[in-house]
Write a structure and sequence with these properties.
With 237 residues, this protein is an alpha/beta fold. Helix 1 (17-29) packs parallel to helix 4 (81-93). The protein has a 7-stranded mixed beta sheet, sandwiched between helices. The chain has a single domain (12-234), classed as Vaccinia Virus protein VP39 (Rossmann fold). Helix content is 37%, strand content 22%.
């Protein structure tokens, strides 16, 4: 990505009540999309019991709720009021007592230094311009304890669907997706921010036929890399 174009703050108005209501409905019905997304992200996370997990860009709260259910003290953070309002409603409906939500900017976390064990950003970095991504990663490093885990999950710029969206053929790109990157680009940003890479994974979509193809061939075929999963550790200063 270049430094030109809209920023994360310019596209924030895209996320309204209808946007989060749709995500909440998918989650609460546990449709195929929600089930695959949850499975993909949980495959990246470490054991969560008795850990502090911060879910940056929590949206309607999926992973804050899921982490809380697994014994974490889970804190969901989102800068959009509609997201936090929806997340609290869904958490109450799901009786998710271990999930807490705060309206705040992921680039200015309301957390003390070295206070979190795990920091997750799921389906977030594609909404971030380069400068905001740099600041979010710097805040993640500040908030994590020594050796703490950073987990990112995001669409891959190389996948056929993203290529079609970029070309305007058949599919239309989400206007808030201003920062869809390759795995190499995202991994490099993570390393520059002071993290040691532990794992770069390619995770499948929820579509049945594509799911099988992506599982079998994503490592060798960039066009089948639907989702990037990155796991990294905070390096010593």
């Amino acid at each position: 990505m270049s430094g030109k174009g809209p920023t994360a703050y310019d596209v924030a108005g895209h996320y309204d009540d209808a946007y989060f209501a749709d995500l909440a409905q998918r989650y609460r019905s546990r449709n195929r999309f929600a089930r695959q997304r949850i499975a993909n992200v949980l495959s990246l996370l470490p054991a969560l019991r008795d850990r502090v997990l911060v879910d940056v860009g929590t949206g309607m709260g999926t992973f804050t709720i899921e982490a809380g259910r697994r014994g974490a003290r889970a804190i969901g953070i989102d800068m959009v009021h509609a997201a936090v309002r929806t997340a609290r409603h869904v958490a109450a409906a799901e009786a998710a007592t271990g999930a807490f939500f705060v309206q705040a900017d992921g680039a200015q976390l309301p957390l003390p230094n070295a206070s979190a064990d795990v920091l997750l950003a799921a389906d977030v970095t594609e909404h971030l311009d380069d400068d905001t991504l740099t600041r979010v990663l710097a805040e993640a490093r500040r908030a994590l304890r020594p050796g703490g885990t950073l987990v990112l999950y995001t669409p891959s710029e190389t996948h056929l669907f993203e290529r079609l969206k970029d070309s305007g053929i058949l599919l239309k790109q989400d206007p808030s997706h201003i920062g869809v990157r390759t795995a190499d680009e995202l991994a490099a940003a993570v390393e520059r921010a002071g993290f040691a890479l532990e794992r770069v994974a390619f995770l499948p979509s929820h579509l049945p036929v594509w799911n099988r193809l992506e599982r079998a061939f994503a490592r060798r075929v960039p066009l089948l890399r639907r989702r990037i999963g990155i796991v990294a550790r905070k390096r010593p200063a």
